Amino acid sequence: MPHPSPSPHLKPLEAEYRPKVPTDVAGAIRYQQRGAHDPSQTTADGVIWRAVRTPEGVATIAIRPGLRTVRAAAWGPGAAWTLDQLPRLCGADDDPAEFDASRHPLIEDVHRRRPDLRIGATDLVFDALASSIFEQKVTGLQAFGAWRWILTHYGEAAPGPTPRPMHAPPADWRMIPSWSWHRAGLEPPQSRTIVDAARRRASIERAAAAATTGDDRDRVFMSLPGVGIWTSAEARIRAFGDPDAVSFGDYHVAHQVGYALTGSRVDDDGMRELLEPWKGQRQRVIRLIWASGVVEPRRGPRLAPEDHRNR
What we know:
Layout (H helix, E strand, L loop, with lengths): L12 E5 L7 H6 L10 E4 L2 E8 L2 E9 L4 E6 L3 H11 L15 H9 L11 H10 L5 H15 L1 E2 L9 E2 L9 H7 L3 H12 L1 H10 L3 H9 L6 H12 L10 H12 L5 H8 L6 H11 L19
Antiparallel strand pairs: 1-5, 2-3, 3-4, 4-5, 6-7
């Protein structure tokens, strides 16, 4: 683990987590990283570092996955919260016991080879929602760049000996001025949606945490103007580790699901039909498809991102 600073205020809390079954902890946590240069999550020398804003304050957690034991150290006011939450982040509450992989030979094969695949959860509802809004209707490059810019300029510096400067999400997204969203490269509809959602943050977090089904959480998130089914599904996956959430509206996902299961592209309706036999476990099927390595050959150049910041 990282060597704690000699300064008393930087002395970490430490904990160990021993998964009950072999678990791909790094894979479960990796989904939460927003691009290679995410200021809130990075990996260095086999240690996963996360800067988060917990209900008890900002915290940094350093996680070293091992064969049987996950070791963690945490700094900051929210350190104890992050260590208590660590098992869920690693996928402890994701149980594939009832999953029927036999419905398709590819899924059956990957599930057999990857019994350690788990879907992790952060339990940080609003930040999961905000990061999903960043990624609406833009390329990943644009979204990740905007996330990096906003967190670097308006987030809180991560406590502890991080391997590079890191920042937790802002305490109050409403305090970010309009020109900063523009400078970050985020479109006005997305920034307005985040600011409007931030005004209802407490009620959204309470209602989403109290909801017991994915449909109920969709109703909570989609009650916000500017939040649709894609954004809601991504928030469900990131915050709650929802094994059934499907990001309808993402043509990359639909194309990949279709190609992996049939050899041909499909649209959202086609993906819905293909995944229907696994209702309740559809996100797990998508993760298994990603893990399979089956990728549709590229048909042309990547979409060039549009930069509107100088308009």
